[in-house]
Amino acid sequence: MSVSFIRRIASPKKALTVAAVAAATAGMALTAAPAQAAPASASSAQAIAHKMIPDAAQFNAFNKIVSHESGWNPSATNSSTGAYGLVQALPASKMASAGSDWKTNPATQIKWGLDYMKSRYGSPVKAWNFWQANGWY
């Protein structure tokens, strides 16, 4: 059964699951292209943010911004601007004010992002409102 046939009869997630099971049964491995692969640390970065942002409305707003900006990839880089990390800091080195491990530590990036949103907009909810109106924050 070809993957294209599976895609025509099922949703993309279901097709991938079916294709992976078929490939495993046949002794093959499926791999995603690096640019399309979900970052392995996305769920852990979200869990860290959830602990740092206990208020549900504030977390949801922060989550929406980070999902749009970086897909929860702590090493996401905008090749045209140099914006970097979960919150796409520009310049990226600004995050050093939150910790020397800003390039690799999602908690440091989240701390810096929260501080930025609070100082510039008042809160993640207000930053999200601005993002919705402007497509950036």
Descriptive tags:
137 residues; mainly alpha; 2 domains; globular; disordered N terminus
Could you characterize what this model shows?
This protein folds into two domains: 1-31; 42-134, no CATH class. The protein has helices spanning 3-9, 12-25, 42-52, 56-69, 106-120, 124-134. It is an all-alpha fold. Helix content is 53%, strand content 0%. It is globular. The model is unreliable at 1-40 (pLDDT under 50). Helix 1 packs antiparallel against helix 2 (12-25) and helix 4 (56-69) crosses helix 6 (124-134). It contains six helices and no strands. Keywords: Signal. Residues 62-125 form the Transglycosylase SLT domain. Residues 1-37 form the signal peptide.
